[in-house]
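Hey L., structure's done. Input below.
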Amino acid sequence: MKNKETFSAGKLRITIILSVIASILAIPLIAMQFTNEVAWNLSDFITAGILLLSTGLAIELVIRNLKTGTLRTVVLIVILLALFLIWAELAVGIFGTPFAGS
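Output:
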């Protein structure tokens, strides 16, 4: 019985992850309809989608494998910090790599 409950909870979390990704990607899509300040192209949406999906799946992996404790919290914070740093680098180039957006 526990395996069925675990599978159901994991399936629900995956659905939530995909819904959040779609919602986040809808923000620039909607903004592009009202202003010229937001100018994403298809590769921007694909890159953001891959980045968000990989982060969401990494978080799901940690939640499934590390049940509780400080290590789980630290790993989740590191994953989110990596997401924010990569996103900032792609957006404005805070580190000056060739991947910088501006």
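The CA atoms of residues 6 and 64 lie 9 Å apart. Residues 2-92 form one domain.

-- N.
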